[in-house]
Amino acid sequence: MNISDCMTREVRLIGPDATIQEAARLMAECDTGALPVSDDDRLIGMITDRDIAIRAIAQGLGPDAKVGEAMSGDLCYCYEDQPVGEVLRNMSELQIRRMPVVNRQKRLVGVVSLGDLARAGETHLAGAALNDISQPGGQHSQTTH
What we know:
The chain is an alpha+beta fold. The protein has helices spanning about 20-30, 50-55, 65-70, 85-95, 115-120, 125-135, and strands at about 35-40, 40-50, 80, 100, 110-115. The chain contains six helices and five strands; from the N terminus they run αββααβαββαα. Strand 3, helix 4 and strand 4 form a beta-alpha-beta unit.
């Protein structure tokens, strides 16, 4: 099975100049914990509910702080035609729970989460990835910023 078979296709984007309060409202509206950040036509990062809590609020930034100040800029993505197992291994190694999905022209076509993969029947692989992701530290640890 490829990622295109289980990803979430309808994805809302936010710009780096939007406020973190706007991002939080959009997350609540969409019932999601992450939003891809785009600048014009280019995907430049992701902002998660954890980014808002740890990189913004905990650091004293208020609701008017810009998404660009709190987002994760080192963007990890996968291709829509990649096999699920390969993407899960990458998510596990990178310790991330969600990943933008792009086509071969690098245009955003969706987002895949561990939940998407578990619902698609990949519960064993998703569980193993979650175990690895939940280990302290790693490339995306927010305690090192």
